[in-house]
Amino acid sequence: MNVTLKILRYNPEKDEKGHYETYSVEAEPTDRLLDLLEEIKGHQDGTLTFRRSCAHGVCGSDAMRINGSNKLACQVLIKNVGAKITIEPLLGLKVVKDLIVDMEPFFDNYKKVLPHLINESALPADGKERIQSQKERARFDDTTKCIMCAACTTSCPSFWGNDDFLGPAALVSAHRFVFDSRDEGASERLEVLSETFGVARCHTAFNCTSACPRDIKITQAIGELKMAMVTGKLD
Predict the structure, then answer these.
(1) Which residue intervals of 53-162 are DSSP H helices?
(2) Which pTM does this prediction carry?
(3) Which terminus of the chain has a lower count of CB atoms within 10 Å, N or C?
(4) What is the mean pLDDT of residues 181-207?
(5) Where exactly does CATH 3.10.20.30 map onto the chain?
(6) Superfamily of domain 2-101
(7) pLDDT, tens digit (0-9, with 9 covering 90-100), for 67-80
(8) According to CATH, what is the number of the domain 104-231?
C-alpha cells in the first residue's frame, strides 16, 4: 500500500516556525510507523530528525503525536492508522528539531519526587535483601512499568498550561515508591506532592491513561496518592 506521511518539520538554524512536509512511502499493512520513518530518513530525506533506540516499546524514546494522539512509533502498525498519517512532536515541551523535544523539564520534574528507594534502616541480620510478600509487591506493581516516554505528561492539559506541574509520569514514579513497603521516604514525597504544582493540579482528564503505551492505570494511581495525602494511610 502507498502511505502518505505529513510530518511537522522544524530546523532552528533556518526556520522561524514549524511547517509540514509530505512524503510518500510504499509499505506493508504490518509495517510499523518507525519503519517508515527510517525509510524516509535513509532513502528520501536524511535531514529528518527523530529519536529512537530499542524499537521494541521498551526505551520510550520514539514517543510522538500520531494522528493527534501520543504513541510510540515502534508500536504503531500502519494497518491501524491508515494510509494518511500526520506526525508531530509531543506537545508541552520545546521542540529542538523536527520530532525531537527538550526532555530536560520532564526529567527535572521526575527528579523532584525522589525516584529512588529511601531506607536508612540496617539490613536484616542475615545481611540479605529486604523481603516483601507477593501482596506487598503487587501493591505498586502497575507503576513499575513506566518507561519515561513522556507520552502521558505531554498529553496532560494541566502540563500544557504550566510545565511546573510535576505531571503524570512523575506522579507515577512517586506512587511506585510511596507504596513500596521497603521504602521509608513516603512522607518526604507526599510533602513534595502537596506543593502548589503537585498532585492537586491533576484534574482527572484521563488523557494520561489513554496515552500510556504500557497501559498503566495512571489516573487511578494519582487518585491513590491523593487519598494517601488525605488519610495518611499507605495500605
Answers:
(1) 78-81, 104-112, 134-138, 157-161
(2) 0.94
(3) C
(4) 95
(5) 2-101
(6) Beta-grasp domain (3.10.20.30)
(7) 999 999 999 999 99
(8) 1.10.1060.10
